[in-house]
């Protein structure tokens, strides 16, 4: 008889875990509390303009690269169209109006920045050596073998912050700022976020960078088709109220009905899982540890709708700062907000000429909206709507200074706050990227895929790392608990074209 696996949550981690296990003999049921699957792969449409909610662009998706190999294994490549970001500057970083480009490929990356910082060419080579050494030292990120191995070399850079290492390797303070200019992608903090996080993300996007034509929800829909083909069930509107345990392990979960299970995988924030488990198997010390873990900062988003054929499509991401470095933007006052922002266009069709919509992201502390925490979406009152309107107008005004004429081409906009993200993902305090890595805490800041309940496992952005590759690597780690690591890698290799 096949073992029954219940997956709580249908984000990327839940869908991919379910697919691997379903293909390997498990009877899988995925339970999603919302009306659509996908987590941060979901998109939404306002006034016929479509927007991403989380997966705004991806990297390492050229043939043979690591994400390409994963997507091929999951069977979603044929359902996707990719639009390449500018290889000469997929990311553009601006400090007080001075712009710098981050280009794809080691040689082009170094040559582009060396043109602005000629005295730092040797330092840039040392920097990139370090990026490549860290990225290649992880066998999972390079798909050499499917094991959660961490070399002593990588471990050392898990205990040193981005700012510390950049200060050591790069002499020019402005170049240090440029290299850290994309930290909104992972909510990094000065002196806290490990350099290893920066290295993996830099390597991921430096290899190649793309937007997904039509939105990342095509990945979620494709994964659901693959799940159905493998015999798995994906059910929406199924809010899990309890993980039911006996004296030794979980025996199932409760929604409006009981789902028996030999195995439970939770693709939700660890704090939400703890709330679902009324059992002495989770001891107070474990509960306290999960409750005390630091979270990444929250986010305020403005979703812009443009007048037809007025804004040329921008095939790069723009990081704008009102200061000479990217750090401490989360430490703002009402007067200084926003200290920085990230501006990206949506790719609606291949070879897009004009943008239909865009998103502008800036940090927002949960404390600003906490007073409305227990209210429902759409019913939070005039003060909340006034706060969002004020923030949106200020953010648009700042973006328009870097992109003259933008404000006059906006047909309308929508907004979201950390409360929106809390409702949407269940992430503690509406954090952008879940639990934060902190060099001061070291391994204590890491959430293990195993819980204190023997047959309850975690997956998703809090296991390993966030982002499409980080979550998929976490999926392999979780599934390796049940299948041999070699078996998973062999399956990936055997599906390659």
Structure in words:
Helix content is 34%, strand content 19%. The protein is an alpha/beta fold and 497 residues long. The strands form 5 sheets. Strands 8-7-16-17-18-15-19 form a 7-stranded mixed beta sheet. Strands 10-2-1-14-20 form a 5-stranded parallel beta sheet, covered by helices on one side. Strands 5-9-6 form a 3-stranded antiparallel beta sheet. Strand 3 (43-46) and strand 4 form a beta hairpin. Helix 3 (106-116) packs antiparallel against helix 4 (121-137) and helix 7 (162-169) packs across helix 9. The protein is globular. It starts with a strand and ends with a helix. The model has no long low-confidence stretch (mean pLDDT 92).
Furnish the topology, listing elements before pairings.
Blueprint: E1 4-8, H1 12-23, E2 27-31, E3 43-46, E4 49-52, E5 58-59, H2 66-74, E6 82-84, E7 91-95, E8 98-102, H3 106-116, H4 121-137, H5 139-142, H6 152-158, H7 162-169, H8 173-179, H9 195-207, E9 209-212, H10 217-229, E10 233-235, E11 242-245, E12 250-254, E13 258-260, E14 263-266, H11 270-276, H12 284-292, E15 298-306, E16 317-321, E17 340-345, E18 357-364, H13 382-402, E19 410-416, H14 418-425, E20 456-458, H15 467-480, H16 485-494
Parallel strand pairs: 1-2, 1-14, 2-10, 7-16, 14-20
Antiparallel strand pairs: 3-4, 5-9, 6-9, 7-8, 11-12, 12-13, 15-18, 15-19, 16-17, 17-18
Helix pairs in contact: 1-10, 1-15, 3-4, 4-9, 7-9
Shape: globular
Mean pLDDT: 92
Number of strands: 20
Uncertain regions spanning at least 5 consecutive residues? none
- Rg calc: 22 Å
């Amino acid at each position: 008889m096949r073992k029954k696996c219940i997956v709580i949550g249908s984000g990327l981690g839940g869908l991919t875990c379910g697919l691997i296990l379903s293909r390997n003999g498990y009877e899988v049921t995925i339970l999603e509390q919302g009306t659509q699957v996908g987590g941060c792969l979901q998109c939404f449409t306002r006034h016929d303009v479509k927007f991403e909610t989380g997966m705004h662009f991806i990297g390492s998706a050229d043939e043979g690269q690591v994400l390409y190999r994963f997507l091929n294994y999951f069977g979603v490549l044929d359902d996707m169209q990719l639009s390449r970001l500018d290889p000469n500057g997929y990311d553009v970083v601006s400090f007080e109006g001075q712009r710098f480009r981050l280009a794809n490929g080691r040689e082009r990356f170094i040559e582009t920045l060396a043109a602005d910082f000629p005295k730092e060419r040797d330092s840039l080579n040392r920097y990139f050596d370090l990026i490549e050494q860290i990225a290649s030292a992880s066998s999972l990120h390079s798909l050499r073998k499917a094991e959660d191995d961490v070399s002593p070399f990588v471990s050392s850079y898990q205990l040193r912050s981005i700012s510390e290492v950049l200060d050591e390797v790069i002499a020019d303070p402005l170049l240090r700022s440029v290299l850290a200019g994309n930290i909104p992608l992972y909510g990094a903090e000065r002196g806290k976020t490990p350099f290893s996080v920066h290295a993996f993300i830099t390597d991921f996007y430096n290899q190649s960078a793309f937007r997904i034509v039509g939105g990342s929800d095509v990945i979620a829909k494709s994964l659901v088709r693959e799940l159905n083909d493998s015999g798995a069930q994906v059910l929406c509107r199924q809010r899990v109220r309890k993980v039911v345990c006996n004296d030794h392990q979980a025996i199932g979960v409760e929604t409006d009905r009981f789902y028996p299970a030999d195995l439970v995988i939770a693709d939700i924030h660890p704090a939400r899982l703890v709330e679902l488990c009324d059992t002495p198997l989770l001891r107070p010390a474990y509960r306290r540890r999960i409750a005390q873990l630091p979270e990444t900062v929250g986010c305020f988003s403005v979703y812009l709708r443009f007048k037809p054929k007025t804004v040329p499509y921008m095939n790069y991401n723009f990081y704008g700062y009102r200061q000479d470095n990217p750090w401490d933007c989360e430490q703002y006052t009402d007067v200084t907000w926003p200290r920085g922002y990230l501006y990206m266009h949506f790719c609606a069709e291949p070879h897009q000429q004009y943008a239909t919509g865009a998103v502008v992201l800036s940090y927002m502390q949960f404390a600003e909206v906490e007073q409305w925490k227990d209210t429902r979406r759409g019913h939070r009152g005039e003060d909340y709507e006034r706060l969002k309107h004020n923030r949106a107008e200020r953010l648009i005004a700042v973006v328009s200074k870097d992109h003259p004429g933008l404000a006059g081409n906006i047909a309308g906009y929508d907004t979201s706050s950390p409360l929106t993200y809390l409702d949407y993902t269940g992430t503690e305090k509406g954090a952008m990227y879940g639990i934060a890595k902190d060099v001061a805490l070291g391994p204590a800041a890491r959430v293990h895929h195993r819980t204190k309940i023997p047959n309850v496992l975690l997956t998703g952005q809090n296991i390993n790392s966030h982002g499409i590759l980080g979550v998929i690597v976490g999926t392999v780690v979780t599934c390796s608990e049940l299948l041999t690591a070699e078996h998973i890698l062999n399956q990936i290799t055997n599906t390659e074209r």
